[in-house]
Amino acid sequence: MDFIRKPRVKVEKTSAVVNLEQLYPHNVTLYRLPPTEDITLQEFEDLALERLKLLRIFEQAGSRNLRFLSDEWKEHITSEINREGLKGYARLFHNSGSVKESDLQARRRDTISHFILRVAYSRSQDLQRWFTAREMEMFRYKFSLLTASQVKEFLEINKLDYTPLTEEQKNEVKDGLYESTMGQSASKIELLDFYKVHFTEVLDLVKGRRCFLKNGFAYVNSSDFVSIIATKYQSELERGLQVAQRGLPESENDERLVSVLKGIHTSYTGKDYSIDKGESVPIECLDQLSIKSFPLCMRSCHEILRSKHHLKHFGRLQYTLFLKGIGVLLEDALRFFREEFTKTMDLERFEKGYAYNIRHSYGKEGSMVKYSPFSCMKIIMQAVGPQDTHGCPFKTLDPVALKSKLTSYGLSPMHVQEVATFATKGHYQLACDRYFEVIHDTKLDQGIQHPNQYFELSQAVMGSREQKGGTPANKNVRKVVKKEVNSTLLEGDDDELWNIAETQENEMTQKKAAETVKSEWDDDFDISQVESMEF
Amino acid sequence: MVKIEENEKGYDPNILPDLLPVYYKRLFPHKPFYRWLSYGNSENGIFTHREISFTLADDVYIRYLSFDSQPELEKEICSRNPHKIDIGAVLSVRPKHHRATANIHALQRELVFDIDMTDYDEVRNCCEGANVCTKCWKFMTIACRVLDAALREDFGFEHILWVFSGRRGIHCWVCDKTARHLDNRGRGAVADYLNLLIHGGENSTTKASIGERLHHSVRRALKIVEPMFEEVCIVDQDMFGNSKGVTKLIQMLPDENLRKDFEAHLKNVGSTSKEVWEAFLRFCNAQRSKGNAVRRMKNIVEEVQLAFLYPRLDINVTKGLNHLLKAPFCVHPKTGKICVPFNPSAAAKFDPMSVPTITALLEEINAFDDKIRSEDAEEDKNRIKDYKKTGMFKGVVVFEEFLRKLESSFKGKAIEVSDSKMEF
């Protein structure tokens, strides 16, 4: 292989540089070979954190709803990388054409840090998913920066062989290509090279109906070519993560590494809501809490459960896990659901069909997995069918329904408009942030990423108000909650808000209850759904 | 028609436990059922590692069953007489040993689709909930034709089994090897490709997202949907004959101003479904020629038609590799109807109302037996397979035909392999 074909480099190459070039021949890599060199613990930790920072930048860009690889997105990434001082990655994402030693060093750091995080993030399904998603963004970004000849070089290095259709072959499927190749004008399609691959190699294009599909084969144009490589890389990465997971006990034999490997995990999730907090929230105060401390998604679940005495499968799952996260005990949750469900079905049917499900969510049945409460991303991404009650209301409700809901919660027309505007633009989490701020009459200094985080922030805000600037009371949920329930008089503007919200709420519930709700809840219940999720 | 009523009336869920033993013993097509799930034993453990689950009396649900052979499966079915049989995935470990191993995962499973009539409640006025009639069954017919065409033409799948789910829906099993081996991501992608509709959850309107340029799969769906739209939505369902339907139509327009304009426009026209729909067509044309919201109005009529008639998939069923789905030839416990396979190319002729119930079938064999006995006492009645004497025959024929093609695909492979050996 001829990596050394750079006549401009006049300086004599040191053997170290040559070595680096051999190890890291290209800016884009499939990370097939783990590094074998020795590094210091300090470097190990630094590299890991550096990459984590980078991956978080990608995550933030996504949650800001910047379109992936759009100019805004790229700008955001570049400025954040500079702000965080990630020089190595700045280099990696700056395709200058010539390769200096510092570029090679950047590649080296890229590879080593990738493998460190691969181990750290192999720990659980959730972490694997997060890591894979971020790595894929990074991969696609790097690939998008390549010139045609660099792509060719990349394919050669990785022994990937793809030949485009001949003119004749292209002509045979011409009509389909014109009709179904998205994102390209007809005149462009005429000129572009097309590759014929099995549809499983370009799932992302299939998913979005972005290419022509015939008899199991996808016709991919050269500007979508990255999809083929990316899919390949993704499945290699997923396999790699599984291998890493199996090796985890061994990796953790070394105590010096354990803290770093585990530390990364917690420094990402910030908080693990699946852990029992030792305090419990009595179910009697859920009605109260739902008005102010529940995010819209959970408040909806709560209201529907109260008014229709039923929640469909995913709604139940979403809500049960949230309740678990805020500290509702299993026995209480069971009692709560039982009281509601048995209004429309007999006790026996509930015990047989649904109680298992709830115990399962608490990790007391079946595979005994401790399920974490759903994060915003998970809730937003979930598919919602007709009559389903789960999902993020800022996304699922159409603007009219959303506005009337918010109005009924006592938001002023101006605030309703503000929140709804975020939602219609697709900034669901920003809409939720704003909703929080309006409801609590405060400013948020962090974005809402998790319904349970919403709850805790809400509790913290109200707790500190109640204690007039005393120590934040978010640590003691039970205490706070009890006070809320027991004292009818809360202080100041809080009190007012409560009242407004509550009267509105009562009106709403009454109205809802008054409507004769047709109850065709005869959805074929399937407990296996729960287990299949984590398979 | 008289016969249909008899079927409905003749079945009583309380006596199901008494009927099942006879059904399983004499009518359930055990051998073909095995031939399907064993796939000619083309892959290791494909039958023995398959998870089967039984629902017994009183909703006792047993998961992780697995069987060594056809006789064992038949014996178990006949001795436990399950009210329902579900088929899961082929697992990495024999399902019955699932407790012994921690690392158990699904290796393969048919790609399945589940379409349920309740998802159509917002667009049908003839029935709701669990009820179906010939009018709303047309939604299922369309769904079946659209999906079947896409699966065959776009994905190249050939071995597709369509099954009536016993009451108000249909199931689809795609059994090609590639389909069976799709991972969760692959299933998700296929599901999303086929899922055009965006449901807003409660109280909001279902919309179709098809973009400005129509993908060939969307165009093909329209070719099926368009000619049916008037018949189904305007005539049968009288969709826009009430204010609810009209509101739904208004909601389909892309922005507030257009909606107001159209609402005003409607004041001057009649209120039958046909009049409203024609007013809508005129309105959209007028807006387009005026140059209003041209881009978003470009395919508005198509979007509306799809929103009403495009298949409504329960995509979570399709996405999960490990989802259990009711097996064909089960008896639906509420209706007593058999989950019979049907031929997708004759989907329009399939009538869920005339699907035989277990009661009717058992009467049929009895009548047949009596006839044989009276005609010729010497004849061995076992010579004719029992299901061939009954209304279930058609369903079994469809199934056999599906199996024949499926099995020939394995034989084809075998010949190919031996051919290539001969050459060299």
Automatic annotation (TrEMBL), chain A:
Cofactor note: Binds 1 [4Fe-4S] cluster.
UniProt binding sites for [4Fe-4S] cluster: 297, 376, 392, 432
CDD domains: PriL_PriS_Eukaryotic
Molecular functions (GO terms): 4 iron, 4 sulfur cluster binding; DNA binding; metal ion binding
This protein's record includes keyword Iron: yes
GO terms under biological process: DNA replication initiation; DNA replication, synthesis of primer
One GO CC term, this protein: alpha DNA polymerase:primase complex
Residue ranges annotated for the DNA primase large subunit C-terminal domain, each copy included: 287-455
Gene3D superfamilies in the record: 1.20.930.80
Function comment: Regulatory subunit of the DNA primase complex and component of the DNA polymerase alpha complex (also known as the alpha DNA polymerase-primase complex) which play an essential role in the initiation of DNA synthesis. The primase subunit of the polymerase alpha complex initiates DNA synthesis by oligomerising short RNA primers on both leading and lagging strands.
Family per similarity comment: Belongs to the eukaryotic-type primase large subunit family.
Protein name: DNA primase large subunit
Organism from which the protein derives: Hermetia illucens
TrEMBL record, chain B:
EC number: 2.7.7.-
InterPro entries (UniProt xref): DNA_primase_S (IPR002755), DNA_primase_ssu_euk/arc (IPR014052)
Cofactor field: Mg(2+); Mn(2+)
Keywords assigned: DNA replication, DNA-directed RNA polymerase, Metal-binding, Nucleotidyltransferase, Primosome, Transcription, Transferase, Zinc
KW Acyltransferase (keyword) present: no
GO biological process: DNA replication initiation; DNA replication, synthesis of primer
Organism domain of life: Eukaryota
Molecular function in Gene Ontology: DNA-directed RNA polymerase activity; metal ion binding
GO CC aspect terms: alpha DNA polymerase:primase complex
SUPFAM superfamilies linked: Prim-pol domain (SSF56747)
Classification via NCBIfam families: primase_sml
Family: Belongs to the eukaryotic-type primase small subunit family.
Protein's UniProt name: DNA primase
Organism this protein belongs to: Hermetia illucens (Black soldier fly)
